[in-house]
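OP here, attaching both records as promised.
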Amino acid sequence: MHELSIAEAIVRIADAHAAGRRVMCVEVAIGHLRQVVPSALEFAFELVAVGTAVEGAELDVVTVPAEGRCRACATVTVLDGFPLHCAACGGLDLQLLRGEELRVESLELDETTMEGVGSGD
């Protein structure tokens, strides 16, 4: 379950940037091609957030659709299934434009400082 390691990274990033403030919400962009199971990620996120400034925070997952440009006809296609192919000509030689993202987009923080929580305290 790679969702656990992804959740650990998200919590680590959010906790470090919280700088002693409680995290209320973490928005994460995840590309369609990352094959992350949202419910598994949410479960893992709750589990690894315990004892950090991220504990109790909402995880807002934004799915980024896969999109590619055909190298044969230059058509940009939303890629929703495998094999990845051009919707216009059926070509398989695509330049991937979106869909592999995995990043923390934003944090919503409570401005009150927490004592003894987060950053390994």
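Record two, same layout:
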Amino acid sequence: MLAIIGQVIRQLREENGISLEELSARAGISVDKLDKIEKNETNPSLGVLIRISRALGAKLGALLAGKDEDRSAVVTRRKDLAGNLTFAGNEEGYNGHLHFYAMAQDKADRHMEPLVVEIAPSGGAPVPDPRSEHSGEEFVYVLEGEATLYYGEETYRLEAGDSVYYDSVVPHFLANESDRPARVLAVLYTPY
């Protein structure tokens, strides 16, 4: 799946007659970074993917699934999840600690993006600035371990069984300040 995201972005951009420079300006991403994403030389963060999808007038799910509208139900089995790494951020100092597993990547025309996210321990690394911010809403439910949400000026420490629902337009960052890995179920809603 990782190798498809860049190809889908390039395909959607070309189908819509949008130049690399124009998409760069619309999404607020440098031309060099966008070019590397399209060539699959770097894995974008979730926030960057959302900005690209909006600039293309496409749903986030279209970038992750690369398919057109589909009205069928999609079942994701636990046994299939481990091999279903959708993307992992590798931007230096930002989101490299997150690994995203799509729960419904075969459902292309969706309004929500359900993901299981593995959060590596931060090892005392500082919270990056700027944090992620994009239109939409997010729901996070801690499955295992502990997670810390930095949300605007607030900090929420969450344990297994805890959840939080928030507006994604507020700068936010999800961290794991424990010494054990954590897993959360994250459901994102990103309007066009």
